[in-house]
Write a structure and sequence with these properties.
This protein is α/β, with parallel strands linked by helices.
């Protein structure tokens, strides 16, 4: 290289260094501005922070700092930091000021050659979240930091074996759903859990306001069975029924049909034909394959709708089918139909011409409905828009359902994502249950929390019952609760042992399934900033728990739960397998999911104008 070329290269390098220096100077200005905003927000929230329990004050300050920064779109600043080989602030949740100050020191050193010493860092303890999780949820097991919460089935009240199996499979916390069973059963469940494992906390879920469909006119009194066929139509498994002549004689898992003459049933013989006319007027013939006492198992190769009162004819006379409970009522709802949602809880039904009627178990909800508001039924399987609303009913035009119709049954959830229902998260039933809950539970979980006022009300009711030391978890399952989360957290943190549950079922319906991933991510971030533990809940490994085989999607979803401090499983016949699978998944994922770099666009969910 010639002297001239050396000089040109040196000049170019000096130019690049000057440009880089100018860029870093701009970065330093931006960082200092963000730092000033964070401290100003802390000063503005000083009164609220002073009310926080001492163990959470650092977390409250950090939460306020985090919200101040996330009011901005930081992606351009992140790119500049990354291009300079500096931290992108992508993992600043637990210590906002500490991360800002560390980067500022590096930037100042790069631009001035000196280390800045005047930054007054108020750094939060990095292990605070881990410590708070241990206080509320119990210690984490070896090889995984995320705990497993399991919902107890009703049989766990009378039988201690389910609790023992769940603990052996990997359960760290037990959940009792107060929407089911009674205080005596809850007390028994908790006793079995505590006998099965030392230090297993018991969380009790208050039912909250029940916004569900009312009764529906029952269906016909029939028992339906059908054979299983292969692709060519050959019978693989026949249709099977039990003819039961005496109470308590059921011996098979085939549907039972009561018969009024026990002696007639006992006289049947293997290979004998039983003939009858089914509910559709079809002549049917089924063969006796086993007789035991006053019970006979019969099989056939045709679909059967066995009605109450049908005459059964055999080789030695005939008998009648006894009383059969009616099938659960349902409405087949199609797109374009009208569903009249009423205050009355008279059994609903279909009026014809695409018009259906069903009651609402929370009549106050109808007061909040306005034309154009969305209404979702049964976890979003059916959706509609309000066309008319008055004091007695709302007319909902169905816009989303299966083309052939979706069945809507009684006791299915109703979500009103666009409406503000004026009802407390604590119902009269919850207040009655709370007397027993305080005496039994380590943790009380409050459903349908929508405001800081809901949290204050629960605290007051717990204090009135001597429940000062009971841990509290708030369930975020509505859009209103999600938007109020900062205020809810600042109220919640006035007690030491607190947490948040992401109740993703209702939340998905309220926020929209396409936005659920974004919403649950934002909840994880803001709770981490507050150093408040999170429970990841709803439909985790449900297919495995209910059917014994997981889907690929739910395994991936369960793995994502590693970012929370606890994952909740629901009930099911294969729940033991689900617990073991989740334990294995969480252990394998340990250490993977922290290695990510979020892009910090502006969080509009909690901006003042949102």
């Amino acid at each position: 290289m010639t002297p001239g070329e050396h000089a040109g290269a040196a000049a170019a390098e000096q130019g690049r260094m000057a440009t880089a220096g100018a860029g870093l100077a701009e970065v330093a200005t931006s960082l200092r501005s963000l730092r000033d905003e964070a401290l100003a927000s802390e000063a503005a929230a000083a009164d609220a922070i002073a009310q926080i329990d001492p163990v959470h004050r650092d977390g409250a300050r950090n939460l306020v700092h985090y919200l101040a920064l996330r009011a901005h779109d930081l992606r351009e600043l992140q790119e500049k930091l990354t291009a300079s080989g500096l931290s992108s602030l992508g993992r600043m949740e637990r210590d906002v000021l500490g991360n800002l100050d560390a980067v500022l020191r590096l930037v100042d050193a790069a631009t001035t050659g000196r280390t800045t010493t005047h930054l007054a860092v108020v750094s939060t303890e990095p292990d605070a979240l881990r410590r708070h999780a241990a206080r509320l949820l119990g210690g984490a097991p070896e090889d995984r930091s995320t705990r497993i919460m399991v919902t107890l089935p009703t049989e766990a009240a009378d039988d201690p074996e389910p609790a023992r199996r769940f603990v052996a499979a990997g359960m760290d916390l037990a959940r009792i759903n107060c929407a089911h069973d009674d205080p005596a059963a809850w007390q028994s469940m908790a006793a079995h859990v505590r006998a099965a494992g030392d230090g297993i906390p018991v969380a009790m879920d208050l039912a909250g306001p029940k916004l569900r469909t009312g009764p529906i006119t029952p269906g016909p009194r029939v028992v339906k069975v059908k054979p299983t066929r292969d692709a060519a139509g050959a019978v693989l498994d026949p249709a099977r029924l039990q003819l039961v002549g005496a109470v308590g004689e059921v011996e098979d898992d085939a549907p039972a049909v009561p018969v009024t003459d026990a002696a007639w049933v006992a006289a049947l013989r293997e290979g004998e034909a039983v003939r009858f006319v089914d509910a559709r007027g079809r002549r049917r013939r089924m063969r006796v394959v086993r007789v035991s006492g006053a019970t006979a198992l019969i099989e056939g190769d045709r679909t059967v709708y066995m009605p109450a009162g049908a005459e059964l004819r055999g080789a030695r006379g005939s008998a009648r089918v006894g009383d059969i409970p009616p099938l659960p009522g349902s409405l087949r709802v199609r797109p374009g139909d009208t569903l009249r949602l009423t205050r009355s809880l008279e059994p609903g039904g279909t009026a014809g011409d695409g018009v259906h009627r069903v009651g609402c178990t929370l009549p106050e909800a109808l007061d909040a409905l306005r034309p154009g508001a969305r209404v979702a039924f049964d976890d979003g399987k059916i959706e509609g828009l309000v066309e008319h609303a008055d004091a007695e009913e709302a007319h909902v035009r169905i816009v989303s359902a299966k083309p052939g119709g979706t069945r809507l049954r009684e006791e299915k959830g109703i979500n009103l994502p666009d409406s503000d229902v004026a009802v407390s998260a604590l119902t009269d039933d919850d207040l009655r249950d709370l007397d027993a809950v305080v005496a039994i539970a380590d943790i009380v979980q409050l459903s349908f929390v929508r405001s800081a006022e809901d949290v204050r009300t629960l605290f007051d009711e717990l204090d009135a019952r001597g429940g000062h030391d009971v841990g509290v978890v708030v369930k975020i399952e509505t859009v209103r609760g999600f938007r109020a989360l900062p205020a809810i957290l600042l109220e919640l943190m006035r007690r030491p042992d607190v947490g948040v549950m992401i109740a993703r079922g209702d939340l998905a319906v309220e926020a929209g399934f396409e936005r659920l991933a974004e919403v649950q991510e934002e909840i994880l971030w803001i709770c981490e900033a507050a150093h408040v533990p999170v429970i990841w809940a709803t439909q985790v490994l449900d297919e495995l728990a209910s059917g014994g085989v997981p889907t690929r999607a739910e395994v991936t979803d369960a793995a994502a739960g590693e970012r929370a401090e606890c994952v909740m499983l629901n009930k099911g016949p294969h729940i033991d397998e689900a617990i073991r699978a989740l334990d294995d998944i969480l252990r394998r994922m340990q250490g993977h999911l922290d290695k990510k770099r979020p892009l910090l666009r502006r969080l509009r969910s909690w901006s003042p104008e949102a």
